[in-house]
């Protein structure tokens, strides 16, 4: 009996692993730069401090680009969404992926013509590239000299072949 009075039982106690995940905007900007994910949960059940935050709700911005999602590598990698499971080897840095914006620009000939055609011309332009890649024609109009391309029929900003396609703070092409 005396040996029984001195026996004890020990228990292993575990705490579920939590991982800090850095959000790399990869050229853009993002308000939330770190989240915490929990093993055997998903990236949709992350935390930002005490607040719940889903990875799909964190949308970075990058002028002239569309956000494609968060990925496990700067280029390529695995797309990480709300449904992505947190494993024992989690993604601890996620990278924003982007695509350059493309725009359709209607070139209104304003009474002129190109080789006799008076219809407006639609050209596709790409953010960050010069218009010279897209507006490589000069219209004619009887009795008038061509003064160039402008953003308005009267006045407006002149767009020449060296002008770089840009957008304003509202995402409108300029």
Description:
This protein is mostly beta strands and 174 residues long. Helix content is 0%, strand content 29%. The chain has strands at residues 18-24, 34-38, 46-48, 51-53, 65-71, 79-80, 93-100, 102-107, 121-126, 149-150, 158-159. The strands form 4 sheets. A 5-stranded mixed beta sheet has the order 2-1-7-5-6, with no helix packed on it. The protein is rod-shaped and about 115 Å long.
Write the topology of this structure.
Layout: E1 18-24, E2 34-38, E3 46-48, E4 51-53, E5 65-71, E6 79-80, E7 93-100, E8 102-107, E9 121-126, E10 149-150, E11 158-159
Parallel strand pairs: 1-7
Antiparallel strand pairs: 1-2, 3-4, 5-6, 5-7, 8-9, 10-11
Oligomer: single chain
- Average per-residue pLDDT, rounded, comes to 90
Strands of the largest sheet, in order across it? 2-1-7-5-6
Radius of gyration: 28 Å
Strand residues, percent: 25-35%
Category by helix and strand content: mainly beta
Question: Which key features would you list for this structure?
Answer:
single chain; 174 residues; mainly beta; 5-stranded mixed sheet; two-stranded antiparallel ribbon
Concise overview:
This protein has 174 residues and is an all-beta fold. Helix content is 0%, strand content 29%.
């Amino acid at each position: 009996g005396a040996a029984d009075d001195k026996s004890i039982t020990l228990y292993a106690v575990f705490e579920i692993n939590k991982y800090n995940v850095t959000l790399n905007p990869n050229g853009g900007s993002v308000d939330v730069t770190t989240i915490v994910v929990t093993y055997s949960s998903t990236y949709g059940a992350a935390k930002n401090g005490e607040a719940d935050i889903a990875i799909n709700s964190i949308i970075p911005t990058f002028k002239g680009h569309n956000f494609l999602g968060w990925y496990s590598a700067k280029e390529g990698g695995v797309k990480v969404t709300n449904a992505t499971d947190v494993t024992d080897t989690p993604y601890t840095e996620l990278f924003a992926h982007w695509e350059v914006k493309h725009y359709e620009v209607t070139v209104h000939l304003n009474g002129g013509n190109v080789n006799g055609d008076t219809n407006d011309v639609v050209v596709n332009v790409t953010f960050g590239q010069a218009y010279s890649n897209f507006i490589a024609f000069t219209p004619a109009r009887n009795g008038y000299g061509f003064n160039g391309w402008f953003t308005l029929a009267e006045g407006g900003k002149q767009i020449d072949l060296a002008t770089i396609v840009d957008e304003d703070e509202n995402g409108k092409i300029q």
